[in-house]
Amino acid sequence: MIDSSSGLVPIQAYLLLAAILFCIGVWGLINSRNAVRVLMSIELMLNAVNINLMTFSSYLDGQLIRGQVFTVFVITVAAAEAAVGLAILLSLYRNRVTVDMERFNLLRW
């Protein structure tokens, strides 16, 4: 896994890790009925994007920090999404006493 000539992990290892995390996030988003698991799956997907941004920034953009800047923005958006999502989830839990996604029918006709 580690390139013996330079001591660096090849780019394929990071991209494979990011792809696996993203696939786990998509699977959790599609198959989960629990709202907390859905939020965690979205966070996994955003972390996979962060790994990709940092990998390409490190391998393609050695001196510039464009990938790191985008990663900070993604982390900020993820934190805001988690805070707002959990606030909405707590509000729904107080009213419905469940976190099952199938039982949230507030916007249906």
List keywords for this structure.
109 residues, mainly alpha, 3 helices
User: Beta fraction of the residues?
Assistant: under 5%
Morphology call: elongated
Low-confidence segments: none
Rg from alpha-carbon coordinates: 18 Å
Helix tally equals 3
Indicate the percent of residues in helices: over 70%
Distance between the termini: 54 Å
The overall strand count is 0
- On the 0-100 scale, what is the average pLDDT? 86
Sequence of secondary-structure elements: HHH
Structural class determined from secondary elements:
mainly alpha
Biggest β-sheet, characterized?
none
Ordered list of secondary-structure elements with their pairings:
Elements: H1 11-31, H2 35-60, H3 66-96
Explain this structure to me?
It is a single chain. By secondary structure, the chain is an all-alpha fold. Helices cover 72% and strands 0% of the residues. Helix 1 (11-31) packs antiparallel against helix 2 and helix 2 (35-60) packs antiparallel against helix 3.
Brief summary of the model shown:
The protein has three helices and no strands.
